Amino acid sequence: MECPKYRRVILKLSGEALAGKMGYGICGDVMERVAKQLVDIRRSGVEIAVVVGGGNIWRGAAGSAQGMDRATADYMGMLATVLNALALQDAIEKLGVDTRVQTAIEMREIAEPYIRRKAISHLEKGYIVIFAAGTGNPYFSTDTTAALRGAEIGAEIILKATQVDGVYDSDPRKNPHAKRFTELSYIEVLRQNLGIMDATATSLCMVNNIPILVFSLEDPNNIYRAALGEDIGTYVRGESN
């Protein structure tokens, strides 16, 4: 077994990623693949928490753009993340690893409320912890949730699984000459508006010195590779000394 680089990590998993090629809803094959990697990571000795998005079911920004009250649309998005979290919990536990879903909006019949000390205790006991319902507040993204929860639980890195294999200076799906960065500073991300995470999330990572690794979810083993510290994707960190 490989020797992992990190002790505790947090994975930001977008809702869109869970939809796979369907573009909407939850793809069983993707969920199974993600769950298997999370189980392998946990069994390698790395403590892992997951923040899930809800864009495969509902996006608050899209609802707001259609004229819906922004706070209402965002709360609906938070509920969508809970659906994804429960589906991921089910997939993981079918593979024999215990999980806990914690939500920022109380719904005690189906999940625990978010309690920082309890989340850390679960991780130390070997559970995979899934954070749902964002921060519990409208106007904040699940990227910001990942940065916030990462700081609260003492994660050593945020792993951000995306649909491209790193950060580029332009959209590689539109520009075949787009340049991929192997490493960036937080300031470079903010100044160039590279869109790795929103500015609030990036600033939180910068203040708390939490590096971000951006990589593609397309490779079926990339989450595992990233958690063990392999050199993939784009690494975002503080300014070089």
Assembly state of the chains shown: single chain
What's the CATH architecture name?
A: 3-Layer(aba) Sandwich
Q: What is the helix tally?
A: 9
CATH fold-level name: Carbamate kinase
CATH superfamily: Acetylglutamate kinase-like
- The proportion of residues in beta strands is 15-25%
**Low-pLDDT ranges:** none
C-alpha-based Rg, rounded? 17 Å
Top-tier CATH class: Alpha Beta
- What helical percentage do the residues reach? 25-40%
| Structure class | alpha/beta
Averaged pLDDT = 93
Question: How would you concisely characterize the structure shown here?
Answer:
The chain is α/β, with parallel strands linked by helices. It is 39% helix and 19% strand.
Folded structure, characterized:
- Helix content is 39%, strand content 19%.
- The chain has 241 residues and is of the alpha/beta class.
- Strands 4-3-5-2-1-6-10-11-9 form a 9-stranded mixed sheet, sandwiched between helices.
- α2 packs across α4 (70-93) and α6 (142-153) packs parallel to α8.
- The mean pLDDT is 93.
Annotation keywords:
two-stranded antiparallel sheet; alpha/beta; 11 strands; 241 residues; Carbamate kinase; single chain; nine-stranded mixed sheet; 19% strand
How are the SSEs placed, and which strands pair?
Elements: E1 8-13, H1 15-19, H2 28-43, E2 47-52, H3 60-65, H4 70-93, E3 99-103, E4 112-113, H5 116-124, E5 128-132, H6 142-153, E6 158-162, E7 167-168, E8 180-181, E9 183-185, H7 186-191, H8 199-208, E10 212-216, H9 222-227, E11 234-237
Parallel strand pairs: 1-2, 1-6, 2-5, 3-4, 3-5, 6-10, 9-11
Antiparallel strand pairs: 7-8, 10-11
Helix pairs in contact: 2-4, 6-8
